[in-house]
Design brief:
Helices cover 43% and strands 16% of the residues. It is α+β, with helices and mostly antiparallel strands. Strand 1 and strand 2 form a beta hairpin. The longest helix has 20 residues.
Length: 171
């Protein structure tokens, strides 16, 4: 150890620091999965059929993981407000990464999160549900026109169930 100079010790101690991977460096490109148009249409149709089976006239919107509308279906007697409401519910579910039924409860007037309701296009009413595959959000579905947000939510869940097997096959 006598022949070991302080300079060499400093170099040896710095080697592990310089060889650690940098966690701050971003990859130049990102890769993600999103619903295909065919799967989005299948989801929308199954969701609409679920509501029709219960006697509800609704609109259904399916958005991609970025919140952009992929499919919008409106039943013949659904209210004029329902297409935009369904789209906003789907957008909110994807944007906030949570179903809008939970968001409606968690952003109540006495909540510290109440101001989230002021975000443009955010709609904290039940009926918007994110769609996931392999733990990642790949899209969202929104329903509007059933007698309650709970009913809208249930129709959305049934629609998602119809495509779940396809999504489970995704790596």
């Amino acid at each position: 150890m006598r022949n070991f100079k302080p300079v060499y010790l400093a170099v040896l101690l710095s080697v592990p620091v310089f060889s650690l991977p940098s966690f701050a460096a971003d990859e130049p490109l990102v890769t993600f999965k999103s619903l295909s148009p065919d799967t989005a249409l299948e989801l929308a149709q199954a969701t609409l059929a679920s509501c029709n089976g219960l006697g509800y006239q609704v609109s259904v919107a399916v958005v991609d993981r970025m919140g952009i509308t992929q499919v919008l279906l409106r039943d013949r007697y659904a209210g004029a407000h329902t297409p935009d409401t369904a789209r906003r519910k789907a957008w909110t579910a994807v944007s906030f990464r949570s179903d809008t039924l939970s968001l409606a409860k968690n952003t109540g007037q006495d909540s510290s999160q109440f101001a989230a309701r002021d975000i443009t296009d955010a709609l904290m009413l039940g009926g918007g549900v994110p769609v996931t595959a392999s733990g990642s959000i790949v899209g969202g579905v929104g329903v509007s026109g059933a007698p309650s947000g709970d009913a809208d939510h249930s129709c959305a869940q049934v629609g998602i169930t119809t495509i779940t097997e396809k999504l489970e096959l995704v790596d």
